[in-house]
Write a structure and sequence with these properties.
Layout (H helix, E strand, L loop, with lengths): L2 H9 L19 E4 L5 E5 L4 E4 L6 E6 L2 E9 L4 H9 L14 E11 L3 E16 L2 E13 L2 E10 H6 L1 H12 L2 E2 L1
Antiparallel strand pairs: 1-2, 2-10, 3-4, 4-5, 5-9, 6-7, 7-8, 8-9
Amino acid sequence: MSATAILAVFLFPGAAWAGRKSPPSPPPLPLEHKHPSGAFSFRTPEGWKVVPSPVNPDVLQTGEGDLLVRFLYRAGEGGLDTTHVDCMLERLAGPMATEPQVKYEYDFRGGVIGGDRGALDSAFVVRYDTPIQGQRDWRQRNLTIVGAGQTLCIMTYAPALVWKESAEARALLDAVVGSITFR
């Protein structure tokens, strides 16, 4: 099984939809983007541009409207726990522009992807002092993958209200993250 297929299973656990109506079909992601390192690629909908993050030039980001995905890649294998914590601090604004506490949806769920990559997954809501795109509360998800000589953090961002109310927004962010293919 490819690392991508295993990543998709890690990302879309059926139990998350237990007792709810079926999740929406993943949206089409016709555009493939390769990371400048050549280490991985990912897919996006039409119209999503891929640019360096304005906060951290080592981070590549894509998105449109209220939805954003960031990728932090490092050659070599960093420590899984410490890298995950570092990536959880990749926020939409600096640390002095947020409330010190976050509200966790879940934290440090772990697993193995492709037999040789460890993964940690956390999701939480950050409250910003000043609204960003009109919203103070943003849901942030961090998925950190370490192994096979690579370290990758994937961070998704959506206003908390959009995340809560829009199954389509959730499906779109999960589809972009699930489209990652390691090279």
